[in-house]
């Protein structure tokens, strides 16, 4: 980094407050709603630390392939005790659709989960598995074609299937980005545009829902900027691309392809390197850890670019 200093720090502008906080211990399962959380160098502490690995294929169980794994959204996972930054990963309790509860530290946990989900799986923490590949069913009749869809092929069911590797940091089962952030403005705007569609934050599985005052897709304007949530800071790296998983039923929400069709119509954006893709929300990568609570102020600032080497820094 250059030793050149910047004379004036960029303005930090408040954009809203944290309305809801979510954590998902297991990939593709329903998670926990929190009143506060800690953020470390790779995301919300405890978020996406676990996944089911299919024994036969070595791939991660992922509801983006709904024929095999869509029903995982009807399972929920929660920590038995609160995880801490730098501490050991505590056990989790998984609640099955029939109300059965199993713990990750009981010896027959894999057997019980396998019987319930209908496939032989192993419950693993992401720091103890080499599995990074997952499958996605591409809804070409809704999403069309882009650079990502070209990676797929037709499976035995006649579906366009894409096998992809996670882009997130090691030790997490993220597809992309350290943090996933949405705004009330974008959700309410979509409800106005498509009143018959069931737009609900739970379809999109963000870490934070920010209560914002401005209208429309306000978070799209944050891409490339620094995002400050509570005591933590991050850089917004991209709009969040949306897929078949957001349309699937969970809790009392029905199957609703109309939500995705509406996003394609009203908020398709160029997201490199993928090309055109329906979006709502943003991904951000951590630059400074910290604590976040319900009501924490959320603000944005421009990235600082040094004149000598063009390196962006957080402010």
Account of the 3D structure:
The protein has helices spanning 66-69, 109-117, 140-143, 184-193, 258-266, and strands at 12-23, 32-34, 36-40, 43-44, 50-54, 76-79, 92-95, 101-103, 121-125, 133-138, 153-154, 160-165, 179-183, 208-212, 226-229, 232-241, 268-271, 275-288, 290-293, 297-301, 304-305, 312-313. The protein has 315 residues and is mainly β. The longest helix is centred in the middle third of the chain and has 10 residues, at 184-193. The chain is globular. Mean pLDDT is 93; it is low at 1-7 and 306-311.
Q: Give unreliable regions as ranges.
A: 1-7, 306-311
The CATH architecture: Beta Barrel
Largest sheet: 7 strands, mixed, barrel
Q: Tell me the strand order in the biggest sheet.
A: 1-14-13-18-16-15-20
Number of helices: 5
Proportion of residues in helical segments:
10-25%
What is the number of domains?
1
CATH class: Mainly Beta
Give the radius of gyration. 20 Å
CATH topology: M1 Pyruvate Kinase, Domain 3
* Rough outline: globular
**What is the typical, i.e. mean, pLDDT?**
93
